[in-house]
Design a protein that fits this description.
The complex is a heterodimer. Chain A has 7 helices and 12 strands. Chain A is α+β, with helices and mostly antiparallel strands. Chain A has a 5-stranded mixed beta sheet with strand order 3-2-1-5-8, covered by helices on one side. In chain A, strands 4-10-9-6-7 form a 5-stranded mixed beta sheet. In chain A, strands 11-12 form a two-stranded antiparallel sheet. By secondary structure, chain B is mostly helical. Chain B has 17 helices and 3 strands. A 3-stranded antiparallel beta sheet of chain B has the order 1-2-3, with no helix packed on it. In chain B, a hairpin with a 5-residue loop joins strand 2 and strand 3. Chains A and B meet through helix 1, helix 2, strand 7 and strand 9 of A and helix 5, helix 7, helix 10, helix 11 and helix 12 of B.
């Protein structure tokens, strides 16, 4: 019936190996603990079964030396695992500025993918091997979770927030893309595939998808159609923050807080402007929730990114 | 008195019979209006047994569906089955299982009290439980909810169209039953201990139920708030969890897990207490490190409140929150590890008997250890990123909540069955069921660890064909497990009528509950006992043991 029984998932990203090593170490430690408990239990059960002649003199009810020693050893072992796991997590969950930024919009029950060049696909994600790919995740309805087992990455896609994750595929091939947060009737079929290609194949694939306006160009059209340009264009007479070079900077808000102008911040400003008024500007920006879809916002973000990236300098 | 003796048909044997709690007055009203903690325990037993098999039926359908990739059920039916399975098993079986039945029956007996502190509240708790049970059955019969037992927003508030409100209200009402029972236990253990029963002489089962009562009393009100807000949101749409109105979907998860993570310990702590009674009794030696066991129980109870966001490592909480909650989760594992170590060493230099309760207890230790080890893997942030939301998690919490807790429940049920009913169960059948349960359980849930690391998402009615072998093994295990769960129903039922009479102390155990007749008289103790020493005074070398009231027994 089956020629082989799978027990290990494929590994096709740089962090996959790192997570595998940790997992194998934990399997080893877990096996050791299990063997110790089972070994002690079995040997005591056989040696000290009722009616056996083994000596029962010198029975120990408590020894603080033993208990404290055991507890300390366990705690130190656990702390080592904690540091190991946490350091990978911190590395994994801080998305670097990628070679490529791709937008993923989740909705019941599909993954919609938009490439920077305007290419779109559903339940599939084509990426080049060896490049750092940064994904911006948005949800149009409920909470989903973006999971590629072969890459050992996962992140929930929460409506009302943009999440960013990253990966660098190390092997070409076709890998499973899954939703791992129960999202309603067809949750089980909200799956797709990630196709990792050589850069040349990827370029061919992009070209083969036809000519599109890039996401930034589409964003500019939305920017003008919804009147954003009336206030935010450099030539505008309305007192509104300039958006050129905004992306990536630190923004001081009039409640005294400071936010990095990343994808999540730009989304918040569009859908909830009153809570994110920039210091020194009047709170006059209208609320665009209900007028723009998550996909529109991602295009606007691509447009604002295209206006320049200023790095660490504060405005 | 003398007049009664002349009445025809009043045989002396019948008088002896009528002196115990089962036969004292045997009308339906005397059961439904009883204030005897022992009878209320049996009422709870009937209710939770019913719900165990309802929840088990849903699980049976799920495993049948997953035996083939194509499945058997409609997606909507499968989704409702796993939701109702979770809700019923968590709130209608596991949470009340040990405290409301064995705890209710034995806490007063073990501390030398005549009843719980508030007998009427105890009875009210059963009625509230059944009211919530009726509501959940209504939700189930009308078609069930389809949100998963975790009711994640905004799926549950805006998108799900099952009977979510009824299911949430069942959970809401059910919480008051928990709170009443917990309050009763806390007051009872504080105020009604017999003379000489100091805190450090309490049997560990009493400590376990005390720890769980503290958690129940403090965490359950949060659940009431959660489910109430869920209802408000679903009907009035005020936008608490709706981002388009300034709400936050993650708020629900924080509030839900703030209750539901402690709830996991609500399910396991009483089981730890039961096993801490069984192991010394059948190893015929004192438990190793009594004080350490008490400290560990209470440490788990307290730390359980500071780990809730480990359910949310990939949900979009900050990296720093993730790191802190991972660290706290490792901390809570330390007292659990102490307990495993102490149970194991409690076998050293004993004179070990392998009766059914002991087999269940040893099974508990092994299953709890494996559940704990996989819990460590889930607490490790980078590994959790991969296995979160997969079958790995399903397998892990079933090892703790089913493998460990249900083993402890059956172990306790067999251990105290002679005291509850006055009858011995057939030992051979019980040992067979215990071993079958252990193997059936492992066959069901171990393959799910592998499936989880392979990446199979939980709550899926279908899966790719290459994962069928593991799923088939799991379903095969589930059918064995179902037989093992049904067997006790048959042979324990048989023993009620045909079982041999047990006598007051068939296990030669030291607790106060074994110093009175089986079944116990309605008032428990004829004279308030005076407690002379701590529990577990077993001497494996000479085979002697000393009851907690100070009477010494030779073999």
């Amino acid at each position: 019936m089956y020629h082989w029984i799978p027990f290990w998932p494929r590994t096709a990203a740089v962090n996959g190996v790192v997570v595998n090593n940790l997992y194998i170490a934990e399997l080893g430690i877990g096996g050791l603990i299990m063997a110790t408990v089972l070994g002690m239990m079995l040997s005591f059960c056989i040696r000290y079964r009722a009616g056996s002649t083994a000596s029962r003199t010198g029975l120990i009810e408590k020894t603080w030396h033993f208990e404290i020693g055991w507890t300390t050893a366990t705690l130190l072992g656990f702390l080592a695992l904690f540091f190991w796991g946490a350091s990978i997590y911190i590395w994994l969950f801080q998305a670097p500025r990628g070679d490529l930024e791709i937008y993923v919009v989740a909705k019941q029950w599909m993954w919609k993918v938009e490439h920077p060049g305007g290419q779109r696909e559903i339940d599939a994600l084509h990426v080049p091997v060896g490049k750092t790919v940064r994904l911006v995740l948005a949800s149009e309805d409920v909470i989903h979770s973006f999971f590629v087992p072969a890459f050992r990455i996962k992140h929930d896609v929460v409506p009302g927030a943009l999440e960013t994750i990253w990966f660098r595929a190390s092997k070409t091939g076709v890998y499973r893309l899954e939703c791992t947060q129960y999202c309603g009737l067809q949750h089980a079929t909200m799956q797709g595939e990630v196709v990792v290609m050589t850069p040349a194949d990827y370029a061919n694939w992009l070209a083969g998808e036809g000519v599109h306006r890039s996401l930034a160009e589409q964003g500019m059209a939305i920017f003008q159609a919804h009147g954003c340009s009336g206030c935010h264009d450099p030539g505008s007479t309305v007192h509104a923050p300039s958006l050129s070079g905004l992306y990536g900077t630190l923004v001081h808000l009039d409640d005294g807080s400071v936010r990095r102008a990343d994808e999540a911040y730009i989304r918040d400003c569009i859908f909830n402007p009153r809570s994110f008024t920039v210091a020194g500007y009047p709170p006059i920006m209208p609320d665009f929730s209900g007028q723009l879809s998550e996909g529109d916002v991602l295009k606007l973000i691509a447009y604002i990114q295209s206006l320049g990236y200023r790095g660490e300098t504060s405005r | 008195m003398s007049i009664a003796a002349f009445e025809p048909g009043a045989e002396p044997a019948a008088d002896v019979e009528s002196s115990n709690y089962l036969t004292a007055r045997n009308t339906i009203a005397s059961w439904l209006l009883t204030r005897d903690h022992k009878r209320i325990a049996l009422l709870f037993m009937a209710s939770i047994t019913f719900f165990f098999f309802v929840g088990g039926f849903a699980a049976t359908l799920m495993r049948m569906n997953l035996a083939t990739p194509g499945g058997l059920l409609q997606p909507s039916v499968y989704n409702r089955m796993f939701t109702m399975h979770g809700i019923i098993m968590v709130w209608f079986f596991l949470i009340p299982s040990i405290p409301a039945t064995l705890g209710n029956f034995f806490i007063p007996l073990m501390i030398g009290a005549r009843d719980l502190a508030f007998p009427r509240v105890n009875l009210a708790s059963w009625y509230v439980f059944n009211l919530s049970g009726l509501v959940v059955l209504f939700a189930l019969v009308m078609g069930g909810a389809d949100t998963g037992w975790t009711f994640y927003t905004p799926l549950s508030t805006e998108y799900a169209n099952g009977y979510v409100f009824a299911a949430a209200m069942a959970v809401f009402i059910n919480g008051f039953s928990s709170i009443m029972t917990a309050l009763n236990f806390i007051v009872t253990i504080h105020r009604l201990r017999a003379p000489g029963m100091t805190w450090m002489r309490l049997p560990l089962f009493v400590w376990g139920v005390y720890a769980v009562s503290v958690v129940m009393l403090t965490a359950t009100p949060v659940l009431a708030m959660d489910t109430f807000l869920l209802a408000v949101e679903r009907f009035l749409g005020v936008g608490l969890f709706d981002p388009s109105r300034g709400g936050d979907p993650l708020l629900w998860q924080h509030m839900f897990w703030f209750y539901s993570h402690p709830a996991v310990y609500i399910m396991i702590l009483p089981g730890m207490g039961v096993v801490s009674e069984i192991i010394p009794c059948f190893a015929r030696r004192p438990v190793f490190g009594y004080a350490g066991m008490v400290v560990a129980l209470m440490a788990i109870a307290v730390l359980s409140f500071f780990v809730w966001a480990h359910h949310m490592f990939v949900a979009g909480i900050s990296i720093y929150a993730g790191v802190v909650f991972s660290l706290m989760t490792f901390f809570v594992a330390v007292p659990s590890a102490i307990k495993v170590f102490n149970w194991t060493v409690s076998l050293h230099k004993g004179a070990i008997l392998f009766d059914a309760p002991m087999l269940y207890a040893l099974g508990f230790v092994l299953l709890f250890t494996l559940g704990g080890i996989t819990g460590l893997m889930l607490a490790t942030l980078a590994v959790d990123v991969h296995v979160h939301g997969t079958y790995f998690v399903v397998a892990h919490f079933h090892y703790i909540m089913v493998g460990a807790t249900v083993s402890a429940f059956f172990g306790g049920l067999h251990y105290w069955w002679p005291k509850i009913t006055g009858r011995l169960y057939p030992e051979i059948w019980a040992r067979f069921a215990a071993i079958l349960m252990y193997f059936g359980f492992n066959l069901t849930f171990f393959p799910q660890f592998v499936l989880g690391y392979l990446g199979m998402p939980r709550r899926s009615y279908t899966y790719p064909p290459e994962w069928q072998s593991w799923n088939l093994l799991s379903s095969a295990g589930a059918s064995i497990l179902a037989v093992a769960y049904l067997m006790p129903l048959l042979y324990l039922g048989w023993s009620l009528i045909w079982g041999r009479r047990a006598g007051p102390n068939p296990w030669r155990a030291t607790g106060l509950e074994w110093t009175i007749p089986s079944p116990p008289p309605s008032g428990n103790f004829e004279h308030t006992p005076h407690v002379a020493l701590g529990p577990y005074s077993y001497d494996p070398e000479r085979g002697r043991y000393i009851s907690q009231d100070g009477t010494s027994h030779a073999v």
